[in-house]
Design a protein that fits this description.
The chain has about 240 residues and is α/β, with parallel strands linked by helices. A five-stranded mixed beta barrel has the order 5-9-8-6-10. The longest helix is centred in the last third of the chain and has 18 residues.
Length: about 240
């Protein structure tokens, strides 16, 4: 079986998918955390690997950046490959002074000013909840492993907000209720999951903040992301 963007055979894709944005991070996760893994997609260099974590079959499939890209891959995986659950694992910027660098954030729902739902099927939506069941599994695992996770609503943006000339003007586009972090994909993933009656959520590691002038080294980013990746894998 193949689609316009995926060359995998049906049996090559697991029912549970972890979805980083970066194709090379998908490669890193497979090589570091999975056993008996194999490359199952390389169309457009959007690498996907299927292997085993603690004897559980899992696929790690890169999404690329932004709602249009994750919208394509999540739709094809859900619709044509019988995927039931997708956990996006990525990076984000803090949208709250209490959310610090290296914190892990779990999205309870994503707000976005995007035409994606309207163009897709005429829906007028700007907020979509993530999977309550997946979120509970992740929170349970975090508690069991003593991993701190911040849980709440997040923003999905069509622009990389650190490049905005006026960050307060950027924030004024969104409701005044507190949002923990800003990233660029979760809203599209949640929308497709909701439309196809599937499950999805989003785990993020905070790697930058307008409230902190410091930044993480490459080694710190790798270690922090490893904790998030392990939490996602343990939760499946």
């Amino acid at each position: 079986m193949a689609t316009a963007h995926i060359e995998s055979a049906l049996e090559d894709i697991a029912e549970i998918v972890l979805m980083p944005g970066d194709p090379l991070r998908a490669k890193y996760i497979a090589e570091t955390f999975l056993t008996d893994y194999k490359l199952v997609n390389k169309v457009r260099n959007m690498f996907a690997y299927t292997g085993y974590y603690n004897n559980k079959k899992v696929t790690v499939f890169a999404s690329g950046m932004g709602i249009p890209s994750i919208g394509i891959y999540s739709y094809e995986l859900y619709k044509f490959y019988n995927v039931q659950k997708i956990i996006r694992i990525g990076t984000a910027g803090s949208n709250n002074p209490h959310i610090k660098l290296k914190d892990i954030v779990l999205s309870s729902g994503a707000y976005c000013k995007s035409y994606f739902p309207l163009l897709f099927d005429g829906a007028n939506k700007d907020y979509i909840k993530s999977s309550t069941q997946l979120n509970q599994k992740i929170k349970d695992q975090a508690k069991q492993k003593n991993i701190s996770v911040q849980y709440g609503d997040t923003i999905t943006s069509d622009v990389f907000d650190p490049y905005c000339d006026d960050i307060e003007k950027f924030r004024s586009n969104f409701p005044s209720r507190p949002f923990l972090a800003t990233e660029m994909e979760a809203f599209g993933l949640f929308y497709i999951a909701q439309k196809l009656n599937k499950e999805a959520t989003c785990l993020m590691t905070i790697v930058d903040s307008t409230y902190d002038s410091s930044s993480l080294t490459s080694e710190e980013r790798e270690k922090s992301l490893n904790e998030m990746i392990t939490l996602a894998l343990e939760s499946i």
